[in-house]
Design goal:
The protein contains 21 helices and 13 strands. With 524 residues, the protein is α/β, with parallel strands linked by helices. The strands form four sheets. A six-stranded mixed sheet has the order 2-7-4-3-11-12. A three-stranded antiparallel sheet has the order 9-8-10.
Length: 524
């Protein structure tokens, strides 16, 4: 247990055995993706100038500007990661991705001898309001509370990041002072929220400002994919897709075939005659498709007239990053490693270099009170991976009075034997009453089952405090039967432990990144 009062930071497996990510990380890339651990350590990457100027970037800290400008001139490289602009940073793993990119960039800068800038790509084109517009927070009683921005009427298919925060959205955030744990740090984070999430500001800008407030001056940059200068710089890339429609479709299909040959289903499904590209003329994003009335030539004319209307999809966005920027490595989660593994042929078809891959940090935060609950009940965090209820049922069974349990079990056995004998005799002598004999057996067994349930209820009532604690531990470690990092927002933990928690996570992430680069990825 951490003597400072901070939670334990336990490394957890990022990849599930049998998954694409496991195959890639366990087999050193498995022929599907290059890994950051295989990058050269004595020379900088091949120089490539950026297609974007410094005005397209946001900066965290004064010291990053000169290094950023060097990278943009072709004298260095980026380490990228990214996510949609989720409400209040979304789940914990978004923070872990940013910290991993910052750590990896520092390691590569030392080994390559050239500036390497960590870059967070804010994918503000996403229009999944259910995912992007909501977040789940542990309240003061360790119960999960989900906050959600109301979907503006008529904007269901418009990007979330470009949505301007309005009064209904601000009212959602007004509930935070009554939800967050009270501590010496709570006021600081509420102030960061008030500074970032301002009525009249785009969601993507609020996300970027809040992330910078939480991370502090760590020398990273960020970019909003929906900025007009980014869309305009991306137009030639989108033109490559449109100019070689069949080549693009074949590259996508080749990536899917390569994964199937490796024994996996392709995470990204190919849509017939549709490019990995969206167009939004004001009514919502639509896939760029060709048919009898919409030709590639017609789409090229639209691109020339309205380049800001085009945006990449999940398959083309990674290649767009490396088209616009000199990217040496990118930090990915397990799902991203899965779908990136089918993108090699598309990178090749677009003549864009495929960056090396680094898995993000993966952690479970075990607070002192949660650890005490685990120890009192002889549990480990993994015991709650399927949620608290299986553990609650086991503890209830173990706490049932032995004498009652033995008596009920003996009674069940005698019922089975007795009713079987009655049923056999009735079937032989009065077969018309077989149904009645069956109902009698069922009625007796139902009565026994009801008594057993009442014993369970009485046992649970006796264990009420203990089982409630186990449920709280389950909600903290594996809410909704999912890893903590994929569900819970970092705010509750930040309010309890303050900026020192971020420092601790940064140190642990730095050790994990160094281990991966040295070829000892461990559990992470």
């Amino acid at each position: 247990m951490n003597p400072t009062g901070n939670p334990e930071v336990l490394s957890r497996p990022l990849d599930v055995p049998g998954s694409i990510a496991h195959a890639v990380l366990d087999a050193g890339g498995a022929g599907l993706l290059p890994l950051a651990s295989r990058l050269p350590t004595a020379a900088p990457p091949s120089p490539r100038r950026s297609r974007l100027g410094p005005e397209a970037f946001g900066l965290s800290g004064r010291g990053v500007r000169a290094r950023l400008e060097s990278v943009l001139r072709g004298q260095g490289a980026f380490v990228t990661t990214g996510h949609q602009p989720v409400l209040l940073l979304g789940p914990l793993y978004v923070l872990y991705k940013a910290l991993t990119a910052i750590s990896l960039a520092a390691h590569l800068e030392r080994t390559l001898g050239a500036p390497v800038v960590p870059l967070f790509w804010i994918a503000s084109d996403d229009h999944d309001w259910d995912e992007v517009g909501s977040t789940t927070i542990l309240d003061r009683s360790d119960a999960t509370r989900t906050l959600a921005l109301p979907v503006p009427a008529g904007r269901e298919r418009r990007s979330v990041g470009s949505h301007i925060l309005d009064r209904p959205g601000m009212e959602v955030l007004d509930a935070l002072p009554d939800i967050l744990p009270e501590s010496a740090f709570t006021g600081h984070y509420l102030e960061l929220i008030r500074d970032a999430w301002v009525e009249g500001r785009p969601v993507s800008a609020a996300f970027a400002r809040f992330l910078a407030g939480v991370l502090g001056d760590r020398g990273y940059a960020w970019i909003d994919s929906a900025r007009p200068e980014v869309r305009r710089a991306a137009a030639p890339f989108h033109g490559r897709l449109l100019a070689d429609w069949d080549g693009t479709l074949e590259a996508e299909a080749a990536g899917a075939r390569a994964l199937r040959a490796a024994g996996f289903e392709a995470p990204i499904s190919c849509v017939e005659d549709a490019l990995p590209l969206f167009f939004d003329e004001g009514g919502g994003r639509q896939r760029v498709r060709r048919d009898a009335t919409t030709t590639p030539e017609g789409w090229l004319e639209r691109l020339e007239a309205a380049p800001e209307g085009f945006s990449p999809n999940v398959a083309s966005r990674p290649a767009l990053e490396s088209y616009l920027l000199p990217v040496a490595a990118t930090v990915l989660g397990p799902g991203e490693i899965g779908y990136w593994s089918q993108l090699g042929p598309l990178f090749d078809a677009l003549d864009v270099p495929l960056p090396a891959v680094q898995p993000r940090g993966a952690w479970t935060l075990v607070e002192a009170r949660t650890r005490r609950i685990l120890e009192r009940n002889g549990l480990s965090p993994r015991d709650l991976a399927m949620g608290a209820e299986p553990v609650v049922e086991r503890l209830t069974r173990e706490a049932r009075p032995d004498a009652v349990e033995r008596a009920l079990e003996g009674f069940r056995e005698s019922i089975e034997a007795g009713t079987a004998a009655v049923g056999e005799a009735v079937a032989h002598d009065v077969p018309g009453l077989r149904g009645a004999a069956g109902k009698m057996r069922k009625g007796i067994l139902d009565a026994v089952a009801e008594l057993s349930r009442q014993v369970d209820r009485a046992t649970r009532e006796r264990l009420d405090v203990r089982l409630g604690q186990v449920r709280r531990a389950g909600a903290n470690l594996f809410p909704r039967r999912r890893p903590q990092e994929r569900v819970l927002n970092p705010l509750s933990f930040l309010c309890r432990y303050g900026p020192e928690l971020v420092e601790r996570l940064a140190r642990e992430t730095d050790r994990q990144a160094a281990s991966f680069l040295a070829g000892r990825a461990g559990d992470g």
